[in-house]
Amino acid sequence: MRVIQSRINTRDERYQANYAAMSTLVEAVEEAQRATRAGGGEKYVKRHLERGKLLPRERIELLLDPDGYFLELMPLAGQGIRGIEPGGGIVGGIGVVSGVECLITATEGTVKGGAINEWGLHKSLRLAEIAEKNRLPGVSFVESAGADLMNQSKIFVPGGQTFRDITRRSKERIPSICVVAGSSTAGGAYLPGMSDYVVMVKDQAKVFLAGPPLVKMATGEVTDDESLGGAAMHSRISGVSDYLADDELDGIRIAREIVSHLNWRKHGPEPRAVEPPLYAPDELLGIASADVRVPFDPREVIARIVDGSRFAEFKREYGGTLTCGWAYIHGYPVGILANHGVLFSESANKGAQFIQLCNQQAIPLVFLQNISGFIVGRQYEEGGIIKNGAKMINAVSNSEVPLFTIMTGASYGAGNYAMCGRSYDPRLLFTWPNHRIAVMGGEQLAGVLDIVRREAAEKQGIAVDEQQLGMAKKMLETQVNNESDAFYATGHLWDDGIIDPRQTRDILGISLSAASNRAVEGTSQWGVFRH
Amino acid sequence: MTFSKVLIANRGEIARRIMRSCHGLGYGTVAVYSDADRGAPFVRDADEALWIGSAASADSYLRSDRLLEAALRSGAGAIHPGYGFLAESADFAAAVEVAGLIFIGPTPDAIRIMGSKIASKQLMVRHEVPVIPGGKVGEQGDAALLEEAKAVGFPILLKASAGGGGKGMRIVEGVEGFQSALEAGRREAMAAFGDGAMLVEKYLRTPRHIEFQIVGDGQGNVRHVLERECTIQRRHQKLIEETPSTLLEAYPELRAAMAKAAVRAGEAVGYRSVGTVEFVVDARHNFYFLEMNTRLQVEHPITEEITGLDLVELQLRIAAGEPLTLRQEDVKANGHAIECRIYAEDPENDFLPCTGELVRWQTPDDPHLRVETGVESGSDVSMHYDPMLAKLITWGPRRRDSSRRMVRALANTVIAGPKTNRRFLLEVLQSPEWDLGAVDTELVGRMLAGERVAPPLETLRAQAATAASLVEALQVDAARAILPSLPMSWRNSRWRPNVAEWTCEGERLQISFTAQGAARFDVVVGDDAALQRRFRAWLAQRYATTEALREAWAAKKGLRADETLESAELLTLPLLVAEGYSKSRRHDSEAFRASERQVVRVVERWEGGLRLELAGHIRRFSVERKGERCWVQCGGEQFVFDAVPRFPEAQARVAEGSCRAPMPGKVIQLLVAAGDPVVRGQTLLTLEAMKMESAVCADQDGVVEEILVTVGELVDADAVLVRLAKAEKSVEP
Questions:
Q1: What's the confidence (pLDDT) of residue B364?
Q2: pLDDT reported for residue B486
């Protein structure tokens, strides 16, 4: 494979401006994540520690292999949403435990007692989906006050899926290990209840369908926490618990031990020998345009994320606005599709063909999205841009190799779909901080509505109130812009997390490795292509 | 009588040393080994080897019958006894001759006479060799010995009549300590030599211990091969030896007189083979005959280093009947040599012998460093034999050259395993007293007794712990199966760094580190507020010592001894030594402050260690890991860390009132019985290990509840020996 020759000049003004702007954005992301790492704030953290309990991230750190990775997912879920603590009251990610990649979750006991809120629920369901799709054993630390009762209407009905998912994974021989380190009542009791392996921590775990007050209300029986649902009772009498841990450390040790004897084997391919890229990943900050309207060459990005900066480009002279080709990332083979301008019919056809080829050879696909949409205009409509775009969407939709998407800039219109947006079921989807996402750009959207209003006014013969129309246009533009940035997207779980562009290569490597727990297979079955 | 094969009736380094010369002259060699030594290097070095018994030396290396049988079985024509064991047993030497074999050493008569304190002294008096007052073996009754002590005058030295090597020896300052010292001395003498006879001798304060190597052919020729100064001793055990002696360099006529006396002593017994005449020299430069060692000395290599002779070769030639061709005028000193004995012992715990696996043993490359050792990496240092691991011998044209080389050799020798006296040796070699040659036999005692503030090693210790942590982390990481190309402990939202926890001498040390690429780490060392304070105290004391010395030397100015000792540097040097030492330490403490983030680079890593760059300073760390224990060595300092496991097991607590064995050994005396009331500090029983006695004392007031051992029982270190019940308020009947 040929090495990509980079043409980046780091002294270039635009590079420097991009670098400065992206650095500021990366720092803003880190700032937001720092806040989530602080949990429910000093007061609650202190109280938690005084009770001799470990913090959720501490539990995860202790569970992980000391040298292994941990990719935290959706750390900013609920960001910017009223009444929701960023992170959604749950910490989750993929990490290595006893040499096995696991989907790890821990409820954030210092945030509203670990009560489950709407966005925490969505995040949990997405984490469960990631575990299932990638065939990852689950380890969960449960310490939860149960449902956030004030908002029960938003979580009660969809929340049921949580328990269904656990047992359906179990049916697929994807085990779930549950370490109960606090209360896990009512619905929460089914978390250990449904799990394959349950560890309860002595004097800390409390698991019951109804607590002492509710029991008294229901039957008049007077009882206490410990005898009603303590770890000792569940380990010795009810059998809900399989392991009685002396303390949390012991519980974590037991969880590691359980994973170690799962006899786990990855069904996907092993990576081959790895060459680091020839170019510094740091330069990605200056390469990606801070203003998504300014295009940049995706080969400069590829050169900084693939092994040895080697890229075997496909159809280089055809459909130039979509760069396609093969490479390796951390030793795993990938087919890469990267935008280099709007999608034309040729680019869409090229993309569809490339997706089919990769499915033939069971090669996972990586989409580097930076797309303002499909080309518009009479000439292109005549050229069948719709049917050609549909072919690419058909190919993406029916593809069966693992798909991964990185939002490196704009994601507008149907381009989001063709390039494997959230709805197209990528195994994992990550966002760079400069990302913009909407049906179209705010300016265009406001402009379009402005034209529509003027036409309507004209039809009705009403004079246009320029001032009012101008204000409406401005307001709409602002609203769309606010609802399309990376923070808004990640807060609404349109992705699995905002990432530092410099970590893109490593995150894709982790994604590919995690996905390789399931056999990597392509398909040769597609929907009907309109030719 | 000729022979072509030599049986070496010994073990360890001396067996290897003897074999080297044997092989050099074409003699075949036969080793003998006990159960404990089957895989030992000296057994491997020999052409063949014969089993002679169990690990206890009384059942193996001290069994003359088995040694003779082994010699006959192997067809060896001669036996070399080495030193220790049966080397100075006249009976053994006689038995060898009776068996028709050659004893590579003196005649049984010479051994017998020189082995007797009294007979040898009488003989010396007759041959005009000065002797120390006292020292006659008289009546062995307690009262008679006490009378003798009073006659000689306290302080006196109580010695085993049959002894050597400090076994059974006690200094008694006055009448009150006499009885207990006598009993203990007798017991040790009995255990070591099978003879409890004791004698009383005048004790000389602050003498120097200087010995002369002699060699005779038993055909009338006796020569001396210069002196060895063995003044640096601890409890009568030689620690550091050198030749030439600084004192005799200053006083050539004293050397001549002593040499003549030494030759006379040898001639008095028609000496055959190599031997050593030991003298003490007092502050007024009077010398007295102490004893004659009728064998090859432990410290013989330094003589070889400055004379170019091979003393074992001489022994072999003489044993084969060759006359001595060495002329006295040909014996010339070339340069200066030092020997240091590295013992497995704990300087922090009264120099008790230490046992266990020697996980790693490696000496540096230096053409002027000679290493005599019986151990290698993986050797087991057992309680059955002498805890000496090795002798390091350095040579240089001048004393400071060999001394400097020795410091570097000691500092760069990798010793992972039992504790050793290495640091202590370095302390002596780096002391102003040593530098000036102003030594006496009490120096070590004074150094130990003085208020020694330990050098502030927190910084180095923190660096060593960092090295241990990174080696551990890199080792674990090297075996990573999942995404090995990813940086260690990769995170996209880092909550905390990697943490390694260790205990070191009861203190907990925490090292936090974050990998920043393959070989770069951000490291934070757990807080240690006392660091700066301790460093200043140490510095202050260091200066005070230097100051006192300077004054002492200034006062002594005008004495000849001072002037001959490279007088230009005399006053400035100790100061420079002290300052240089502190400067390097100060640099350390500034380089690695606690609780500050440091960038540490792993410059190079290999099996057994790494080089780290810390604050722009690249240092080499040797790191050995065995189980939870980790030995880290850097610049002559060794640290032992025990990993604090991530998930601690519930540990069985030691019940209070359990008196444990401080080291493995044999119970030789029980002083209490079940039900006896005891007070804190009272001796409960006596343990013997490495032929040294140690007392196990009550750790609290109370009543003996249970005694778990019997006399003669072998116990492991840490074994509970006696259980005490807490003292209850006594109820009057």
A1: 93
A2: 94
Distance CA A488, CA A485 (A): 5
State the total domains in chain A. Answer: 3
Give residue A190's domain range.
38-260
CATH number for the domain including B696?
A: 2.40.50.100
Minimum distance, in Å, between the CA of residue B588 and any CA atom of chain A: 30
Of A364, A300, A308, A374, which Cα lies nearest the Cα of A338? A300
For residues B599 and B577, membership in a common domain is answered with yes
User: Could you tell me where the DSSP H helices lie in A425-501?
Assistant: 442-460, 466-482, 486-491
Contacts of B729 (CB under 8 A, 6+ apart): none
Which of residues A71 and B436 earns the better pLDDT score? Answer: A71
Is A276 within a domain?
no
Tell me how many domains chain B contains.
5
B401 and B261 within one domain: yes
Among A517, A431, A519, A521, which Cα is nearest to A103's? A517
Residue A152 located in a structural domain: yes
pLDDT of residue B204: 81
pLDDT at residue B339 in the model: 98
Residue B170 has a pLDDT of 83
- Measured CA to CA, the distance from residue B339 to residue B242 in angstroms comes to 6
Across the interface, whether the CB atoms of B492 and A503 are under 8 A apart is answered: yes
pLDDT band of A153, cuts 50, 70, 90 = confident
Which residues of B are tagged catalytic? 295
Distance from CA of A330 to the nearest CA of B (A): 6
The confidence score (pLDDT) of residue B268 equals: 94
Q: Tell me which residue range forms the domain holding B321.
A: 217-227+251-449
**Do residues B461 and B518 both lie within one domain?**
yes
By C-alpha distance, which of A66, A151, A79 is closest to A115? A151
CATH number at residue B84: 3.40.50.20
Residue A268 per-residue DSSP state = S
Please report, for the domain that includes residue B139, its CATH number. Answer: 3.30.1490.20
- Cβ neighbours of A99 in B, within 8 Å: 481-482
How many angstroms separate the CA atoms of B181 and B425, rounded? 29
For residue B471, which phi and psi values (nearest 5 degrees)?
-60, -45
Q: Does residue B392 belong to any structural domain of this protein? A: yes
Average pLDDT, integer, range A178-183: 93
Same-domain check for residues B49 and B161:
no
Task: Report residue A424 as tokens.
Answer: 């197209």
A76 token code pair: 């900013």
Residue B664 is assigned to a structural domain of this protein: yes
Same domain, residue pair B385 and B457: no
* pLDDT at A263 > cutoff 90: yes
Partners of B471 on chain A (C-beta within 8 Å) are none
Summarize pLDDT for A265-290 with one digit per residue, the tens. 999 999 999 999 999 999 999 999 98
Q: Is A387 domain-assigned?
A: yes
Q: Which residue has the higher pLDDT, B542 or A324?
A: A324
Residue burial A49-63, b: 16+ Cβ < 10 Å; e: rest: eeeebbbbbbbbbbb
- What CATH number does residue A110 fall under? 3.90.226.10
For position B166, what pLDDT does the model report? 66
Say if A496 is an interface residue toward chain B (CB within 8 Å): no
Task: Point out the residues of chain B with pLDDT beneath 50.
Answer: 527-536, 538-539, 556-594, 651-654, 729-733
Whether residues B620 and B592 share a domain: the answer is yes
* Whether A477 and A492 share a structural domain: no
What confidence score (pLDDT) does residue A102 get? 98
Query: What pLDDT score does A41 carry?
Result: 77
